[in-house]
Design a protein that fits this description.
The chain is mainly α.
Amino acid sequence: MSLLHILQSDAFSVNVREIDAQHKRLVEMVNEFHRAMRTGAAADVMKKLLRELISYTANHFALEEKYMKKYNFSGYNEHKQAHEKLVAQVLELQKTVESGKSVITIDVMNFLKDWLINHIKGMDKKYGEHFNKNGLF
């Protein structure tokens, strides 16, 4: 089963349309990345997909953090640190892949998938109700 099917359940919704839509797009991108890896896509295709995923993720994190600040979410600092840690890990991965020192493996894919699922179900679910109370749906 693809990651998208898993995340389409209500258990993953943060009840904010814009953020839920971005989460679905992130999942689609991880699934595309995984399909490309499984089918043996060329290294330049994998590098391109990784760059797109990194860019989209950065924009998504910026949106979440903007709303957290705007609505004075108490978990902002912890959440921002989790975002920064993932960004650092993925940028390090990108550097090794771009240099040809590493390739994308199933372990990398599992890390991305697990991080996304755990982050949405754990940390992101915490801000949904707070945002809703402040009129963001």
